[in-house]
Design brief:
Layout (H helix, E strand, L loop, with lengths): L4 E5 L2 H7 L4 E7 L10 E7 L5 E7 L5 E5 L6 E5 L10 E6 L27
Parallel strand pairs: 1-7
Antiparallel strand pairs: 1-2, 2-6, 3-4, 4-5, 5-6
Length: 122
């Protein structure tokens, strides 16, 4: 069973924070998420979207772990690389494709957005 609507993000900020062509993150409810061991550090900045973003990382190895934003209260966006069950991660779309590097190719049938994914009506 997939974890949730994972996403590829091609924004410059995500590329730089991962040292790669994109980031893959999976949303979790903040109330159901916790770090089981180790210490985390964080920094807050304004993302490419103009929204505030706090990125959390491991203080021992500096690996990116997850992010939060006041724009998405109650959610944490966990970096797929830190999840134990990689086979459960199934990205459902990609965002910030206007910033995508040309040598990074992802399934062209995956829904793609030039900037952030439009907010879904509730």
């Amino acid at each position: 069973m997939p974890l949730g609507p994972g996403t590829y993000c091609h924004c410059e900020d995500c590329r730089k924070s991962t040292g790669s062509a994109f980031s893959v993150a999976v949303p979790f409810e903040a109330s159901e998420f916790r770090v089981l061991s180790g210490e985390t550090g964080s920094f807050t900045k304004i993302a490419d979207s103009g929204n505030e973003l706090t990125r959390y990382f491991c203080l021992k190895c500096c690996s990116p772990l997850y992010g939060t934003s006041p724009q998405h209260p109650g959610q944490v966006y966990v970096k797929a690389g830190v999840l134990d069950e990689q086979s459960l991660v199934r990205p459902t779309h990609q965002s910030w494709c206007q910033s995508q590097v040309e040598w990074s190719v992802i399934d062209p049938d995956l829904p793609s957005y030039p900037k952030g994914r439009p907010r879904q009506a509730k």
